[in-house]
Design brief:
Elements: H1 4-29, E1 32-33, E2 45-46, H2 49-71, H3 78-83, H4 85-110, H5 114-130, H6 141-162, H7 168-185, H8 205-223
Antiparallel strand pairs: 1-2
Length: 235
Amino acid sequence: MINLPLYLAATFAAAILGTLVVRHLASRFGWVALPRPNRWHTQPTALHGGVGFFPVFLAGGLFILSRHVEASHLLWTFTSIRSDAEARLLAALLVSASFMFVVGLADDLFHFRPFTKILAQLIATSLFLAAGGVFTLSPSLLFNLLLTYFWFIGIINAVNLLDHMDGLSSGVVSLAAINITLLTLQSPAAGSVHFLSPTPIPLLAIPIALTLAVVLCGFLIFNWSPASIFMGDSG
């Protein structure tokens, strides 16, 4: 059982706290983005904002997964999670996202070549595809696989590009997460979701999308123009 409003409030507060801590550390140790012609900011701005909110998102995702496993009367084993489609996809999403977080943070610190970053994105997408996260828009498996790779890698790089402008990447992704929530709620299977009372988690897309939206809204407080911190590639 999970009290969704309380969970979201705690997640929001944790994202704010995490971002504040990272912003302070960035200022102290000089982890800043200096003004450049291809960026919109005119003052040195803290980097590594993803370090402030991604651990909160990951903790929230693991909490949601644990509640789902408990509600489904599964054991915390690889076999039991693999047998549950929703749990398997969420676990794969968290693993892939964590992998990209580590690679992105390393890129912020060591500045990888484009080939290295694309290779990492291919690996992260492959991890999710291996769990069954493939778009099925065509009878052709090859077409579906290529489309899924193109979509994931395109989204990753689009968000990175949007991080050049104050509040744009966090704002766009949080709105997309809210839209996913609303679309999922229109599903007939979502009829048992009640937001004002403790509830089991019948559709994992709803709480994980809300978690993403909430942590990004917490970060957006500091990323709004004039931004005092950027996501960096770790975001």
